[in-house]
């Protein structure tokens, strides 16, 4: 019966090509607008590390006091140098890393070409295991390299291709800002979106990092941060050491805590540390700490661009208008066939069969609208740069998931829109139709 009703539906659609075209276009444009904006929203609001996001936490310690704190007495987004070093030395988590972004100039081995700028992060050796960074050659530097402030570097595949033609570069040297660094690892072009580990101090949707160097070595070299540096009160630190002792926050901490018990123990450690600083006279306020996991941190920072949320709501509103128009068109189309329905009912067709016939016909309209929507979505994704920043626009892409979702939404929405017109069609009284005709 399904194939029979499908044939009836196709014949009906072909009898009214203009009306059919209007319905297909309404569904196609509506679903395309929704899927284009959804593809951007999906890219910027997804879980960047779903397998570990509940186990990775960013600790915050109030080093400014109520007078200078953020809204809601929230502590600073990052740590100052003194607090960061104390947390590093305490090492109360299974894995931990302190990091900050850097920009450096790179010169290939032998200095046979012009230097160029590379961007990356200082970190500790745990960084790579914590965030599941994939390697194609080598691995992270050892914990002893952190302690010895070794001049070692992990580079990206992209930089390795540029400097060494993609060959295994382990043990070779590159020059960064006038100093030689030994390559110990080459990563894939790893770049989670959003880039959660540097959502405050770095670029959330930027390009993959080129380099990673030990934070202990970077501090020895007095390599300044290329990210945020936020200070409060009267700041007159004068030189590097003065800056390190100031309340300026710029070091981003991350810890891995694998159980609720570990989370609670680390929270107690943070509160105890803040209480010790208060007793020592360094803080003049009660302990005020936070411990947020990846998704809580991204939500707190409101990482999802406001324009993507607004655009999605506008697109969904436009889709709703298209569906309302489709309801009207289907209602007009179905009720024009009242005499046909009356004859079918008189010949023994049940209301259930009328429902089935007209819903299948509506499903065919939805499928055609979905195909049109796919074409418009593919076209629209190539032009999202007109609405969003380039670094966000390039995240949108048409994959199999989006293809399936487009077709499913189109068919399902059309079937929902067809419920009322189909119900009206099934209420046609065969006796009245036969008498009037």
UniProtKB/TrEMBL annotation:
Annotated signal sequence range: none
UniProt cross-references to Pfam families, sorted A to Z: FtsX, MacB_PCD
Occurrences of domain ABC3 transporter permease C-terminal (ranges): 313-430
This protein's UniProt keywords: Cell membrane, Membrane, Transmembrane, Transmembrane helix
InterPro entries, sorted: ABC3_permease_C, MacB_PCD, Macrolide_Exporter_MacB
Organism name: Dyella koreensis
TM regions (residue ranges): 21-41, 312-335, 355-388, 400-420
Locations listed in the record: Cell membrane
Topology within the bilayer: Multi-pass membrane protein
Protein's UniProt name: ABC transporter permease
Keyword Metal-binding: no
Presence of keyword Transmembrane: yes
MacB-like periplasmic core domain segment(s): 20-223
